[in-house]
Design goal:
61% of the residues lie in helices and 0% in strands. It has five helices and no strands. The longest helix has 33 residues, at 87-119.
Length: 129
C-alpha cells in the first residue's frame, strides 16, 4: 500500500467523504517512490544529484584519487564524526573569531586610508590611479 498525494480518483484513507474536486489527503495508488522518481527528471535537483553521484562513483572506482578529492560519503562521515565529538563546533568558533578579527583590522585600515585620501591632497594623489 502506497500513498499518492494528488490522485483525485483515489479514496481517502480516513474514510470520510470529500467534495468533488477536493485534493485527496492521503489516497492509495501509485507507489510514492515511483512518482518521485518520475518527477526527478523535471526537478532542479537532477543535475546536482547527478554530479554528486558521478563524483561518488568516480571516487569509488579510483578515477578521482582520495588525496585530490574525497568521496561525498567520506566527507559526510567525517563531518558527522567531528560534529558528534565536539571538535567541529569548537574549531568553527576559532575560525569565526579569526574572520571577525580580520574584518575589524580591514575596516579600521580602510577607514583610515579613506579619511586620508578624502582630506589631504597627497592622500588623494596617492590613492588615485
Amino acid at each position: 500500500m502506497s500513498l499518492v498525494l494528488d490522485d483525485p480518483q483515489a479514496p481517502a484513507l480516513s474514510g470520510a467523504a470529500r467534495p468533488a474536486g477536493a485534493p485527496a489527503t492521503a489516497p492509495i495508488g501509485v507507489p510514492l517512490a515511483r512518482r518521485l522518481l518520475s518527477h526527478l527528471g523535471n526537478s532542479r535537483w537532477t543535475v546536482p544529484l547527478a554530479l554528486v553521484l558521478a563524483w561518488e562513483v568516480g571516487s569509488r572506482v579510483g578515477l578521482v584519487p582520495a588525496r585530490v578529492l574525497a568521496a561525498p560519503s567520506a566527507v559526510l562521515v567525517t563531518f558527522w564524526t567531528l560534529l558528534v565529538s565536539g571538535e567541529l563546533p569548537s574549531n568553527l568558533l576559532v575560525s569565526l573569531a579569526r574572520v571577525v578579527t580580520g574584518l575589524g583590522i580591514g575596516v579600521a585600515v580602510g577607514t583610515v586610508l579613506a579619511v586620508v585620501a578624502g582630506l589631504f591632497r597627497r592622500g588623494r594623489r596617492w590613492s588615485t590611479p
